[in-house]
Amino acid sequence: MEVLGLVDIPTWLQWVLLLVGLLVTYVIYMSWNHGTFRKMGIDGPKPNPIFGNMRMFINDGLNKTELDMYRKYGKVFGMYETYIPVLYIADPALLKDVMVKEFRSFVNRRDSFKNFFDSEMNLMLTQIEDDHWRFVRNTVTPTFSGKKLRQMTPLINNSADKFMEHIEQKVKEGEDIDMKKFIGGFTMDVIASTAFGLDVNSQNNPDDPFLKHANAFNDSNSIAVLVTVVFFLPFLAWIFKVCSFLGIKITKMRESLEFFTRVTDRALKERRQTPGKYFDFLGILVNAEKGDDTSAKEKEDDVVKENGASETGSTWTRKTLTAGENTAQATLFFVAGYDTTANTLSFLMYHLAIYPEICDNLLREIDDQLNGQEPNYDNVAKLSYLEMCIHETMRLFPAAARLDRMAGNDVTIGNIRIPKGMIVNIPVGAIQMDPEYWPEPEKFDPERFTPEAKANRDPFVFMPFGAGPRNCVGMRLALLEMKIAVVRILQKYQPVKSPKTEVPIKISKMGNLPLDLYLKFEKRT
Ligand code: HEM
């Protein structure tokens, strides 16, 4: 090629110049926003032009990085997830503003993954936005009311029967129990029965398709592909759209979504043929379609008040969810409710095994209050020490160690002017380890959750289920499920350390996921 008829540039050099040009453009693109926090007067670690601050997360893991940054920069700081500026807020007064007082400006979560998810996944409650979210949230919230949870209790106890058989077997054989597998099977069975009315028995069948497909959402290869493209090659979003349109599966998630769609469609058909027969999530939605307007009747239910649903009035007048919305929510319940509950229960069992004196207190409470009765919605409410133990477990190992919100408009919080579209991260895990609120934060101490201790502490320093109108919609099911599981186990067995139990427990760099956890169970006399 000749330039201005003067210099003849050889082909190899043309390629080099093209590559250098592309690289420079890429670096400019990735670092374009890296001055955001400097302009806002907010401190934080210096970003690398391509990685931003992502290298810290990759090297040290999410929890350690956020804890280190919180300790170094305090309760407000800024970080860059490659090219995306993320404002961290950890000050309880500011968090109350973001999550409750100024909720109208922070209704939605981050949309960084929106262009990469399949359209069905974008219908999940976690992803949808504004009035669409309000409408779906109002429709599904009554599913978790006291009345519905009472109806679901036998389903939870049925799943617990299976794991009690499993423990009995292992105790007879003198074997340790792999807690992740065993408890994961239980929470999977509970979600399968409470969401879809299915008796899956994944506890005795590790190859169960439900287990396989639910795990696809946590598949490390799929997550790696998604994270690489979202954070490093965002301009390739169109490839995901084209592949989705052509039915090409880039990640295992697509195949699993199709599986859940088929199961949901079948379950919905059955429920439409025999309305009123089923008390699971899909049955409740179908009953609402038929005019059993549960949501209206249960508007005064405590769940509505707890979740701050008064904030969530939607202008939408549509009566029911579409087929796609039903499938998306039922699938989401698997994804959101399986690992979170299983991991929390595993961490709790671990603490009961390594602190026998705490376990003894709990055994005493269960024996005194329940006197050998099967646990149910009403009698587990009397177990205040059990709730303290669950809360302390979730303080040390919150299943979601960070929450996020996105500013829907320009808004001022305290003296910070947050521009429309900015992502706000809430480092729950780091706040819950701050000695200012939690003396000796590494220590497992359920006494931190006595009513007096709670009354003297700002509620925004403990948020394992999030806070405000967009908190966890399944919180009450999760707590009920965990309480029933613990009671059923402790009425017969006591968890103890075995030579295979690693102390301290090893967790994944990706968050609060126990890596290997083996415990022994001894029969109570
Ligand atoms: C120990 C168990 C669980 C923990 C720790 C947990 C934690 C959380 C957290 C932290 C959030 C985000 C809240 C926020 O942004 O303020 C959330 C949202 C959500 N959770 Fe849970 N969760 C658990 C169990 C469940 C279960 C059993 C279900 C359903 C069956 C469920 C369904 C959801 C849904 C649908 C959302 C999105 C809510 C919305 O955007 O409106 N979760 N959960």
Which terms would index this structure?
22 helices, globular, four-stranded mixed sheet, oxidoreductase activity, acting on paired donors, with incorporation or reduction of molecular oxygen, Cytochrome p450, 11 strands, Cyt_P450_E_grp-I, binds protoporphyrin IX containing FE, alpha+beta, membrane, about 525 residues
Write the layout of secondary structure elements.
Layout lengths: L1 E2 L3 E2 L2 H21 L4 H5 L13 H7 L1 H12 L2 E6 L2 E6 L2 H10 L28 H11 L5 H28 L3 E2 H18 L12 H8 L3 H13 L4 H10 L5 H22 L7 H9 L4 H4 L4 H5 L16 H15 L1 H16 L1 H15 L13 H13 L6 E4 L4 E3 L2 E3 L4 E4 L1 H4 L19 H5 L19 H16 L2 E4 L21 E6 L2
Parallel strand pairs: 4-9
Antiparallel strand pairs: 1-2, 3-4, 5-11, 6-9, 7-8, 10-11
Helix pairs in contact: 3-4, 7-8, 7-22, 8-16, 8-17, 9-12, 12-13, 12-16, 17-18, 17-19, 17-22
The structure holds protoporphyrin IX containing FE.
Protoporphyrin IX containing FE (HEM) binds next to helix 16, helix 17 and helix 22.
- Are any ligands bound, and if so which? protoporphyrin IX containing FE
Mean of all residue-level pLDDT scores: 88
Return the structural class. Answer: alpha+beta
Could you say what the CATH architecture of the domain at 120-295 and 319-400 and 464-523 is? Orthogonal Bundle
Rg, please? 25 Å
Catalogue the unreliable spans: 293-310
CATH topology grouping of the domain at 120-295 and 319-400 and 464-523: Cytochrome p450
- How would you sum up the major sheet? 4 strands, mixed
For CATH, the homologous superfamily of the domain at 120-295 and 319-400 and 464-523 is named as Cytochrome P450
Shape: globular
Helix content: 40-55%
- N/C terminus separation: 89 Å
Give the strand content: 5-15%
Strand order of the largest sheet: 3-4-9-6
Number of helices: 22
Total strands: 11
Function: Cytochromes P450 are a group of heme-thiolate monooxygenases. They oxidize a variety of structurally unrelated compounds, including steroids, fatty acids, and xenobiotics.
GO molecular function, one term: iron ion binding
Family: Belongs to the cytochrome P450 family.
Subcellular location: Endoplasmic reticulum membrane; Microsome membrane
